[in-house]
Design goal:
Length: about 190
């Protein structure tokens, strides 16, 4: 691994579109600067051996021109609401989607910020799941980033959604948004 220069050298590693604290993820990407050229398959094996069980390297590719972060335009999220009936969640989602804008507030590094959570939502689907409901969101990456918990706050605000148990939030994929089909492409392909 390559390191920055200066008084306190740091590894040259960049996490692109890292998931928020408390969220699981099946789609994390990072860029690592190397001090020498290494075969991607060998690097994948070495990284996989160094990581704890459950953290798996799925692919290693040579960096394409441009920024990986710029290719991550959208994320698909799965939110399991274990104590909320699907019809209640569906009604809240319907109320939310009917609006052009839903402002929520969140504390950021720059203090309390207000932003439109509705603008980031491309699709929202509700299905039954165990003793509750599953909400699948396709979120466009905006500035500031709209997170799944922001959408949940908006659903509570405009749709009366309540939940007693903490939701299980998992990012399923992220990459370039294929607009006509509302699908997410492979950010590693050039």
């Amino acid at each position: 691994m390559a390191y920055s220069s200066g008084f306190n050298p740091h590894p040259r590693i960049s996490y692109a579109g890292a998931s928020p604290t408390g969220a699981a993820s099946e789609a994390e990407y990072l860029e690592i600067g190397l001090a020498e050229t290494v075969d991607p398959a060998v690097l994948a094996q070495r990284l996989d051996e160094a990581l704890p069980d459950g953290l798996d390297v799925l692919a290693v590719v040579e960096a394409a021109p441009g920024s990986l972060a710029d290719r991550l335009e959208a994320s698909r999220w799965q939110i399991d609401l274990t104590d909320t009936a699907p019809d209640v969640t569906a009604a809240a989602v319907e109320s939310f989607l009917a609006l052009e804008s839903v402002t929520v507030e969140r504390m950021t590094k720059k203090g309390m910020r207000s932003f439109d959570s509705r603008a980031a939502v491309v699709t929202a689907e509700v299905t039954a799941y165990d003793a509750g409901s599953r909400l699948t969101l396709l979120l466009r990456h905006t500035e500031p980033v709209v997170r799944p918990d922001d959408v949940l706050a908006a659903l509570r605000q405009v749709g009366g959604l309540t939940e007693a148990a903490a939701p299980l939030v998992t990012r399923l994929e992220q990459g370039p948004l294929e607009g006509a089909t509302d699908t997410i492409g492979d950010p590693l392909s050039t």
